[in-house]
Amino acid sequence: MTDKPHSYANPGPLGLMGFGMTTVLLNLHNAGLVSIGSAILAMGLVFGGAAQIFAGLLEFVNGNTFGLTAFTSYGAFWISFVLLIVLPHFGVIPASSPALIGSYLTIWGIFTAILFVATLKASKELQVVFGTLVALFLLLAAGEFTGQSIFTTIAGYEGIVCGFSAIYLAAKELLQ
């Protein structure tokens, strides 16, 4: 009797949906279309955070270093982002200065640019997700560094495009 090789499910759509849907919700706020609220923060913790980390660990099982790195990192980003908002609100720690938040967003932009370079060997859809994410982080950082809300508003609309590009790629992988 021969052992059949294990076939594992693709965790990519889960991670992409977690990233994409959470990104769209947050950027509706950044664009000035909705107020920040529990729907955005809860989505950030659970679907943007935990589900992406879970997808990243499953990418590890599948031997996909890029998926492991991207999904677990952005899952951690979403959890840290929510904590940046919630912890000062409850007086646990003081809020970070705009310069520190700008630095936080810039370092995420640099990390994302490295991942974008790695996507040049992948699909055009994945390149769009990461290319628009680099732009999103840099626009948000510019808003923090300059205090000019126009950067955040532009970032919001650009982030909606980024989020929907991830949702599109997730749907494409699910429906193949």
In a nutshell, what does this entry contain?
By secondary structure, the chain is mostly helical.
Structure notes:
- By secondary structure, this protein is mainly alpha-helical.
- It contains six helices and no strands.
- The longest helix has 27 residues, at 149-175.
- It is globular and about 60 Å long.
Secondary structure layout plus pairing:
Layout: H1 12-30, H2 38-61, H3 65-89, H4 98-119, H5 124-146, H6 149-175
Helix pairs in contact: 1-2, 1-3, 1-6, 2-3, 4-5, 5-6
Key phrases:
176 residues, mainly alpha, 6 helices, 80% helix
Kindly provide the radius of gyration, computed on alpha-carbon positions and rounded to a whole number of angstroms. 17 Å
The proportion of strand residues reads: under 5%
Give the termini separation. Answer: 32 Å
Sequence stretches where pLDDT stays below 50 over 5 or more residues: none
The SSE order reads: HHHHHH
Helix-and-strand structural type? mainly alpha
Q: Label the overall shape.
A: globular
- Count of individual helical segments: 6
